[in-house]
Specification:
alpha/beta, TIM Barrel, 2 domains, five-stranded parallel beta sheet, 21 helices, 12 strands
Length: 571
C-alpha cells in the first residue's frame, strides 16, 4: 500500500540530527583543506533567478526535508515527483512540435509532415494579424499575413487547416494568446469539428487563452482592458467545462512571460496568480473548484540553468497542490495536478553560430523531461531568424525522440529526487514562488496588478537587467559574448522562404463575403454585442457568429466596440 501523508502528523526528517552535525563538521573541514579563505573559486555564484549557489551540498542543506510531506510518491500528494504514478513508463510525454506559416493549406502539409515522422500531438501558432484579431485584408495586416504563423480568418480556414488530420484521435494545441481571439478561434475549431460530424465532447487539446498575453506582454496595437480580457478568459474556461470534458481551456502562459522578461520565480508566480484569480471568478459564478481545476494547465519556458529549471518544474507542482488543497478546499485528486507543456527557450537561441542552438535546445528539453513535463516542443536551431525549415524541424523532432527512446531517462520517475542540490533548489524555489504570489495578492490580485502597471514594470526591469548582463559579459552566451570566434565566417544556412499567403487569404475572404448570408452575420454579431453588454457568457454567441460565417476580425471588432480599448501604464 502506498504511504500517504496526513496533515498534522509529526514530521520525520530523513537524517539523524547527530549525523547531520558530523556531516557539517566534515564539510567545514573539507572546505578548509581545499579552499583558501579568499580563494576565487569560492566567490558567490547565483542561479539565473538569483538564488545563491554553493560549491557543495550535503544532507545538512535539506535537514528539514520530510519525505512524505515534501516529496511523496509520483501521482500522490504533493505531486512534486510527478502527476501520474508511472509517468513516462505508461504515458510518454507528447511530442508536440510547433507548426504554423502561410495559409491553412501550407500549415496542413507541415502538420502531416510532423505526424508522419512520429509526432504525437499538434501545436498550431498563428500569424500576427490572427493573434491580434485582424482579418487578412485589414490594412493593419499588410505584410504580416502568414508570417511567423498561419493565417486564419474563418471557419472555412479552420477546416482547411485540419483537413485530413484525425482530430478525434490527436490532441491539438491552439496557441491563441488573447482571450478574445481564443473565443473566436476555439469556436471555429468546434464548428469545424461539428461540420465533420465529430462530437465536441471527444475533442482533446488546449487553448492558450491568457489575458496577460493581451494586457502585459503583447500590448499592441489595440487591446481590451484587463477586466474585459480576464472576463472573456473565464468565459472560455466556463464554456469549455460545460461542453468539452477533454479540453484544457487555458494554458497559463509562463513561457511568454519568461521570454518578455522574468526569471523562473516570477514566471511561475505570475502564472499561478492568474490561475488563482480564475478559480475565484468561476467559484463566484457558482462552479465548484473540483469542476474547474482538473482542466487548468500551464506552459513553462525551460531556460539554460539546468538544475534550476528542473527544480522549478518540481516546485511548481508542490505550490499548486498546496493552493488548491488549502485555499480552495478541493477534494477531487485530479484538481491537485499541475499539468504543463514545455517549450525550450527561444530567447536563448542565437543567429550567430546557430548550430549551437541544437545543443542548447536538447539540454533544455532534457531538463523538461527530468522535471516531469506532460508535453514538449523543442525549438529548432534556425528559429532565431526564421520559421523552421523542414530539415531543422526534423532535427528538433528527432531530438525529442532521442530523449524518449535512447537515453533511458524515461525508465524511472523523477530520477533526480534525493539530490541534495536539487531538493534544496526545489524547496527554495517553492518558498520564493509562494512569496511572489503573496506579493501579487497584496497588490489586489493579478488583474489589479496588471491594471496598475506593476506587472509591466516587473517585466521591463528584469529584461533591462538581463540585457545589461549580456552586454557586460557577465551572462555568458557561447559564440556571442563568450569564446566568440571573430574570424569565423558564417556557415551557409538555408533560410525558410514563406509561401505567398496574403493574396490567397484576401481572395478567400472576398469569396466568403460574397457567398454568405450578410443579414445572418449582422444578426449574429448584434447578438454577440448584446451578450458582451450583459453578464452572460459570450461564447454561445461567438459560436453562433462563427456558424453564420462571421470572420475573426468582425468578431474581434464587436469586442473592441463594446469593451473599448486600453492603454497600459507607461510610467
Amino acid at each position: 500500500m502506498a504511504i500517504r501523508h496526513t496533515r498534522g502528523m509529526k514530521r520525520l526528517g530523513l537524517f539523524r540530527r547527530d549525523k547531520l552535525r558530523q556531516i557539517e563538521r566534515a564539510a567545514r573541514k573539507w572546505e578548509q583543506e581545499h579552499f583558501a579563505g579568499d580563494d576565487p573559486r569560492l566567490e558567490q555564484r547565483h542561479s539565473y533567478s538569483g538564488i545563491p549557489v554553493k560549491p557543495l551540498y550535503t544532507p545538512a542543506d535539506v535537514a528539514d526535508l520530510d519525505y512524505v510531506e515534501h516529496l511523496g510518491f509520483p501521482g500522490e500528494p504533493p505531486f512534486v515527483r510527478g502527476v501520474y504514478p508511472t509517468m513516462y513508463r505508461r504515458r510518454p510525454f507528447t511530442v508536440r512540435q510547433i507548426a504554423g506559416f502561410g495559409t491553412p493549406e501550407d500549415t496542413n502539409r507541415r502538420i502531416k509532415f510532423l505526424l508522419g515522422r512520429g509526432g504525437t500531438g499538434v501545436n498550431i501558432v498563428f500569424d500576427l494579424p490572427t493573434v491580434r484579431g485582424y482579418d487578412s485584408d485589414d490594412p493593419r495586416a499588410e505584410g504580416n499575413v502568414g508570417q511567423c504563423g498561419v493565417s486564419v480568418n474563418s471557419v472555412e480556414d479552420m477546416e482547411e487547416l485540419f483537413g485530413g488530420i484525425p482530430i478525434a484521435d490527436v490532441s491539438v494545441s491552439l496557441v491563441t494568446h488573447l482571450p478574445s481571439v481564443t473565443a473566436a478561434v476555439f469556436a471555429m475549431y468546434l464548428v469545424a469539428a461539428e461540420r465533420r460530424g465529430i462530437p465536441v465532447e471527444s475533442l482533446a487539446g488546449t487553448t492558450q487563452n491568457d489575458f496577460l498575453m493581451e494586457t502585459a506582454i503583447g500590448c499592441a496595437p489595440e487591446i481590451l482592458n484587463p477586466e474585459a480580457s480576464f472576463r472573456i478568459q473565464c468565459d472560455v474556461v466556463e464554456y469549455s467545462r460545460e461542453r468539452c470534458p477533454r479540453w484544457n481551456p487555458i494554458s497559463y502562459n509562463g513561457y511568454n512571460l519568461r521570454e518578455a522578461g522574468t526569471n523562473a520565480v516570477q514566471e511561475v508566480g505570475i502564472a499561478i496568480a492568474n490561475a488563482v484569480a480564475t478559480l475565484e471568478e468561476l467559484i463566484s459564478r457558482g462552479w465548484r473548484v473540483d469542476a474547474i481545476a482538473p482542466r487548468l494547465s500551464f506552459f513553462w519556458d525551460l531556460y539554460n540553468d539546468f538544475f534550476e529549471e528542473i527544480a522549478k518544474c518540481r516546485a511548481s507542482r508542490r505550490v499548486w497542490h498546496k493552493i488548491v488543497r488549502d485555499r480552495f478546499g478541493a477534494s477531487e485528486p485530479r484538481s491537485y495536478l499541475m499539468r504543463f507543456h514545455v517549450q525550450t527557450a527561444g530567447i536563448t537561441l542565437t543567429a550567430v553560430e546557430p548550430m549551437n542552438n541544437i545543443a542548447r535546445a536538447a539540454l533544455q528539453g532534457l531538463a523538461a523531461v527530468l522535471g516531469g513535463a506532460q508535453s514538449l516542443h523543442i525549438d529548432s536551431y534556425d528559429e532565431a531568424y526564421c520559421v523552421p525549415t523542414e530539415e531543422a524541424a526534423l532535427v528538433s523532432l528527432r531530438t525529442q525522440q532521442i530523449i524518449q527512446a535512447e537515453t533511458n531517462v524515461v525508465n524511472t520517475v523523477d530520477p533526480l529526487a534525493g539530490s541534495y542540490y536539487v531538493e534544496y533548489l526545489t524547496s527554495e524555489m517553492e518558498r520564493r514562488i509562494s512569496s511572489y504570489i503573496a506579493e501579487i495578492e497584496k497588490r489586489g490580485g493579478i488583474v489589479a496588478a496588471t491594471r496598475s502597471g506593476w506587472i509591466h514594470r516587473e517585466i521591463a526591469d528584469f529584461a533591462y537587467r538581463q540585457q545589461k548582463e549580456i552586454e557586460a559579459g557577465t551572462l555568458k552566451i557561447v559564440g556571442l559574448n563568450f569564446l566568440r570566434d571573430e574570424e569565423r565566417r558564417q556557415e551557409p544556412i538555408r533560410v525558410f522562404r514563406y509561401p505567398e499567403a496574403e493574396s490567397r487569404q484576401r481572395a478567400k475572404l472576398g469569396r466568403l463575403r460574397r457567398e454568405r448570408d450578410a443579414h445572418a452575420v449582422e444578426r449574429a454579431l448584434s447578438s454577440l454585442g448584446d451578450r458582451c453588454r450583459s453578464r452572460e457568457n459570450v461564447m454561445p454567441a461567438v459560436v453562433d457568429a462563427v456558424r453564420a460565417r462571421a470572420t475573426l476580425g468582425e468578431i474581434e471588432g464587436v469586442f473592441r466596440e463594446v469593451f473599448g480599448l486600453w492603454q497600459f501604464p507607461l510610467a
